[in-house]
Amino acid sequence: MKIVQKALALVGLLSLCALFVYALQDAPTDENFEKKLINDYNVYALQIPEDLNFAGEPVPIENPDILERIDRELLVNTYWQSNGLLMFKRAKKYFPLIEPILAKHGVPDDFKYLAVIESGLTNAVSPAGARGMWQIMPATGRENGLEVNSNVDERYHLEKATEVACKYLLKAKEDLGSWTLAAAAYNAGNAGVSRRLREQNVNDYYDLLLGEETGRYVFRIVALKEILSNPTKYGFNFREKDLYKQVPTYQVEVDTAVTDFTKFAEQFGINYKLLKIHNPWLRQPHLNNRSRKQYFIDIPEKGYYN
User: Fold this and answer.
1) Is 37 a residue whose pLDDT tops 60?
2) Per-residue confidence (pLDDT) for residue 303, from 0 to 100
3) Are both 229 and 256 inside the same structural domain?
4) Whether residue 285 sits in one domain with residue 146
5) What is the average per-residue pLDDT within 63-75?
6) Mean per-residue pLDDT for 64-89?
7) Which domain holds residue 273?
8) Structural domains of the chain, count
9) Could you tell me which residue ranges the Transglycosylase SLT domain spans (predicted)?
10) b/e 50-79 (16+ beta carbons within 10 angstroms → b)
11) Could you tell me if 145 and 108 lie in one domain?
12) Dihedral sign, CA of 107, 109, 114, 120?
């Protein structure tokens, strides 16, 4: 019996020793940690495409300065993976609303990527007072027919805001002569870009010395266009079902005041939150509408939130 007990104890001791050695081998030492890090995660220099363009206007990457600047934006947006994946998801939801409006006005389809860099395709709010996906300032909105006040702010109405952006871009193209300069002017203003062109005696965006934000602006648009057009090339992997989609809606016409949007929403089988999600331009829980203006409120179709 004692011999058996000693044998079992020896087996147990050997087993513990083996586990200890195994644990040491798998412990997060500097050596094996570094090996796992190298094997599991790699960062690569990117090959810059030779045919980059914005709205059909070539990006002169043969210029070393231009090459470095577009390389920066491609790297930043490729390796900011979480943000990049969100852009793919949101683009699937919002590009189908933006694209036909651009086409209707004869504005190149590439300008949908301007909305991406302006707001990340969210209803963003800037410190300067710009609002919505197209980041429209209050005066610009009012000058182009949008209602902008504390009760109703149509800068948050994607379709109407896209119409205003098209008007602005068409005027900028007419004044400045190229779509690339028109894009820069969306950031710095027509007058600002025109003044810089005169001061520096050039006529091309890529020849201008600009401040940090406007100097990066077009390069960011081109980089997002390239990445969003070629997801697998830049390491983004997703399925169609991973992307966001628009919830179908129907419109309800309103030409009177609405005293309580919570009760209004309940009439259509939804709550106040869902009403605001689909109508972010309604800024308060009521609608004044003393002028009896005609509004169209989007109501989600039944079955999508249940």
Assistant:
1) no
2) 87
3) no
4) no
5) 97
6) 96
7) 249-300
8) 3
9) 106-204
10) eebebbebebebeeeebeebbbebbeebbe
11) yes
12) positive
Residue range 229-274, pLDDT digits in tens: 999 999 999 999 999 999 999 999 999 999 999 999 999 999 999 9
Question: Do 105 and 232 share a domain, yes or no?
Answer: yes
**Domain boundary at 241, 257, 276, which?**
241
Q: Residue 173: inside a domain, yes or no?
A: yes
Q: Identify whether residues 156 and 292 lie together within a single domain.
A: no
Tell me, yes or no, whether 151 and 265 share the same domain: no
Mean pLDDT of the chain: 90
Q: What is the pTM of this model?
A: 0.85
pLDDT at 225 over 90: yes
Q: CA 106 → CA 66, 102, 130, 166, 266, distances in Å? A: 28, 6, 25, 9, 41
* pLDDT 10s digits, 235-244: 999 999 999 9
